[in-house]
Specification:
This protein is mainly beta and 162 residues long. 2% of the residues lie in helices and 53% in strands. It has one domain: Cathepsin D, subunit A, domain 1 (Beta Barrel). The chain is globular.
């Protein structure tokens, strides 16, 4: 007898067999290098966080404004103290503004944008909240909304996705 649990089959001998051949769920580590091609020439270290729902990008000087009745946001990726800071201002349409609870339990309103992300050579779309992550080790956090159904996270490894 077999019991199916999220893409895995557990048989009577408790052997695990990956059966997801249609979606090809790939294994990634707890930290991976990714690119945000429209926001930076550099690759960024991203913490893969299954406890966070929304992905978050370290930014500073985030300013929401309206042009022709549509909300836009102007921001700088990273900050001047980060070694990969490029000092370039970016603008993007605001996808939405959402209340998000941080890891320390504080709820704040954050601007969410949609961007392209290159992950292991594949381009996808990602929703990113713009926040100050200067106290965090990694400038980019990838949450469940992006990884769900696409990746399995091996928390014992880093930089394994090619």
């Amino acid at each position: 007898m077999h019991t199916s649990i999220k893409g895995l089959i557990l048989d009577n001998e408790l052997n695990k067999k990956n059966i997801n051949t249609e979606n090809k769920i790939e294994t990634i580590g707890r930290v991976e290098r990714v690119q945000l091609p429209d926001l930076s020439r550099n690759s960024l270290d991203a913490k893969i966080d299954t406890g966070a729902y929304t992905s978050s990008l370290h930014c500073h000087s985030v300013e929401v404004f309206t042009i022709h009745g549509k909300k836009r946001v102007r921001f700088y990726v990273l900050d001047p103290s980060h070694p990969e800071y490029e000092g370039k201002s970016f603008e993007s349409p605001v996808y939405k503004i959402k209340k998000i609870k941080s890891s320390n339990g504080i709820v704040s309103e954050r601007v969410i944008i949609k961007q392209k992300i290159t992950f292991g050579g594949k381009v996808s779309n990602i929703q990113l909240s713009l926040s100050n992550r200067s106290d965090m080790k990694y400038p980019l956090l990838i949450g469940r909304r992006f990884i769900s159904g696409k990746f399995l996270v091996d928390v014992s490894k880093k930089y394994i996705y090619k």
